[in-house]
Design goal:
With 649 residues, this protein is an alpha/beta fold. It contains 25 helices and 19 strands.
């Protein structure tokens, strides 16, 4: 046992030394925690690494990736010694922080502190919802725990505290957090930055709290984890450890993020009685991990497969729905459910979303989500009541005012294969951006629905009027941002988000009513841009999104009536989708020879210059007044847009 723990320690430290980069402190201090958790508690098997009913493990303290990679290697996952030697090197599967989809056995991308805790809360919500939705009698096809290893830094991040608070409120009793409590962070002792009473803090948030005095005391740790499995609350286990355990500067921040060096590592090896050379592992160590992890996990997996066969026979309809969730397959007739709304009807796009979300949810059991104390305004709300401990099949998550955690929790639910969505005002995408970025990095189809998408918000003023937010979202790699112009585009935007398997989608919607200018089919919408109004011969092009499409059509009509000028109108709900189109399609919509173009959007102008030499937008903060007055103030009238167009030479 001690030899196996040291194998975790020294593989991790050797990786850091080889790369001359990394974090050895947590490796030396927390290796016993990883050994105990993996060998005696985690229900996993590398022979089926994505088994749906496996326990989830999140290393929220993602800087300790060497600790995770060494444990996964010893546990039998597809991470070779060669890859351990390539730690933090270009092209390796052992990057500086754990990355989902990149490394087998990694359940979430972590590193930005606190994010993993939010993800874990989302996974625990998903497990509870699916368990209570699908399990029948003694056929517990969903029944697992979510474990987290976090550090002091995680506990200081606001996102983590938001997530902890919600988890305690929801009594997520299959969530177990192990806190590597070593009283040290990068800049020095934690007492220089915080004086929290951890026990009181977590108990006040409705968590079960336990403390293990020594990370090396595996029997005490085992007892604490077993106790955690028998509570009706989420569990927080504080494990006192020594950062850089065994090194010359153990217990200090000097061991946090700098290699120990091969000479000192050799001295620690000798002191620990560990005779293996760097990156050499004896067969008895591999055998220990195999017997305690792989053999046990394989048995559990076989039992689950047999249970699934029985479930299939007894409950074929529910089995089919569950299989769709496992395979991330959407089984719904969108064309039958999402009907076109008549042209000239006026409706805010947030209202359109609020109308179709519940309709689709009735047909997709995997749709779960909610808003950050804003559902009355955003219209973004799950069905079947609030998800609670007493109503675990409720599909509305009452996130409260916790935007940052809401996004991280949504990512966790999506990692657990739900079609999860989060709602909020576009301005507060600022609070959610770190989690949105991680959804894009992980290539998971999280759905972020934003309303109040322009200065038309009105009286709430510049604090609530988004200007740069659309540009920030559009600049995020692998994120698709959609700003629908009206209800018919909203239908297709939500369909695109639900059908996505590897791309998160942000949808920006209006507070104010907008006129439905046209109908369109889904194939046209997926081009990202299309022609709304056209002529055989055109003088130029107006390009618009969202509520400004109605203004563009009105301006085109005005130019035709008052000046006998014929202008094409293009709706561009998604720059990202348009940019992916073949040149033939892009040139048909925006012919290169037609250079007289004006883009119109009530937000930052910068990105629009890719499509037009002239842009009418807003590159300053807004103003507090009625929405119509603010739009008029910034020149969003047909007369002013026509004037801007006529000035183009």
């Amino acid at each position: 046992m001690e030899k196996s723990i040291n194998a975790i320690r020294f593989l991790g430290v050797d990786m850091v030394n080889e790369a001359n980069s990394g974090h050895p402190g947590i490796v030396l201090g927390a290796a016993p925690v990883m050994y105990e958790l993996f060998t005696n508690h985690l229900k996993i098997t590398p022979n089926s690494p994505t088994w749906f009913n496996r326990d989830r493990f999140i290393l929220s303290a993602g800087h300790g990736s060497a600790l995770l990679y060494s444990t996964l290697h010893l546990s039998g996952y597809e991470i070779s010694l060669k890859e351990l030697k390539n730690f933090r090197q270009l092209g390796s599967i052992t990057p500086g922080h754990p990355e989902y989809r990149h490394t087998e056995g990694v359940d979430s991308t972590t590193g930005p502190l606190g994010q993993g805790i939010g993800n874990a809360v989302g996974m625990a919500i998903a497990e509870s919802y699916l368990r209570n939705t699908f399990n029948k009698g003694d056929l517990n096809i969903v029944d697992h725990y979510t474990y987290v290893l976090c550090g002091d830094g995680d506990l200081q991040e606001g996102v983590a505290l938001e997530a902890f608070s919600l988890a305690g409120h929801l009594k997520l009793n299959k969530l177990i957090v192990l806190f590597d409590s070593n009283d040290v962070q990068l800049d020095g002792p934690t007492h220089e930055a915080t004086s929290d009473d951890i026990k009181t803090k977590f108990e006040s948030m409705n968590w079960d709290y336990q403390r293990v005095e020594d990370a090396n005391d595996l029997s005490a740790l085992r007892k604490a984890i077993l106790n955690a499995k028998n509570t009706d609350k989420p569990s927080f286990i504080e494990v006192k450890s020594i950062i850089g355990f065994g090194s010359k500067k153990q217990g200090t921040s000097a061991t946090h993020g700098a290699p120990l060096g091969k000479e000192e590592t050799l001295e620690i090896r000798k002191a620990f009685g560990y005779e293996e050379e760097p990156f050499k592992i004896s067969d008895d160590i591999y055998r220990d991990f195999f017997e305690k992890i792989v053999a046990r996990g394989d048995r559990k997996h076989v039992e689950w497969v047999e249970m699934m066969d029985e479930y299939h026979e007894l409950y074929p309809r529910d089995f089919e729905r569950f299989e769709h969730i496992i395979n991330r397959e959407i089984n719904v007739n969108f064309d039958a459910l999402l009907e076109d709304i008549d042209v000239d009807t006026k409706e805010a796009t947030r209202v359109s979303m609020g109308r179709i979300l519940p309709k689709l949810s009735e047909h997709l059991v995997e749709m779960v989500g909610g808003s950050a104390d804003l559902s009355g305004s955003t219209k973004v709300k799950g069905i079947n009541g609030n998800f609670t401990y007493d109503n675990p099949t409720g599909r509305n998550i009452n996130f409260g005012v916790r935007e940052h955690a809401m996004a991280a929790i949504t990512n966790g639910m999506v990692l657990h294969h739900l079609k999860a969505f989060a709602g909020g005002f576009l301005i507060f995408s600022d609070y959610m951006k770190p989690s949105i970025r991680l959804s894009a990095l992980m290539e998971i189809p999280s759905i972020f629905i934003f309303t109040h998408d322009s200065v038309a918000v009105g009286e709430d003023g510049p604090t609530h009027q988004p200007i740069e937010q659309l540009s920030v979202l559009r600049s995020t790699p692998h994120l698709v941002t959609i700003r629908p112009a009206h209800a018919n585009e909203v239908n297709h935007a939500l369909r695109y988000a639900l059908e996505s398997k590897r791309t998160p989608v942000a949808i920006a919607l209006t507070r104010q009513d907008v006129r439905i200018t046209n109908t369109l089919d889904y194939a046209t919408f997926k081009q990202g841009a299309y022609i709304v109004k056209d002529h055989k011969e055109i003088d130029g092009i107006l390009i618009a999104t969202g509520s400004e499409l109605e203004l563009a059509v009105e301006t085109s009509d005005y130019l035709e009536t008052e000046h006998q000028i014929k202008v094409r109108v293009v709706s561009m709900p998604s720059m990202e989708l348009f940019n992916k189109q073949p040149e033939k399609i892009k040139n048909a919509i925006l012919p290169p020879e037609i250079t007289k173009r004006l883009a119109i959007e009530a937000g930052a102008t910068g990105l629009w210059y890719r499509y037009a030499q002239h842009v009418h937008g807003i590159d300053q903060f807004g103003a507090s007044a009625k929405g119509e007055d603010v739009l008029n103030y910034f020149g969003f009238t047909k007369e002013n847009i026509a004037k801007r167009y006529l000035e183009i030479k």
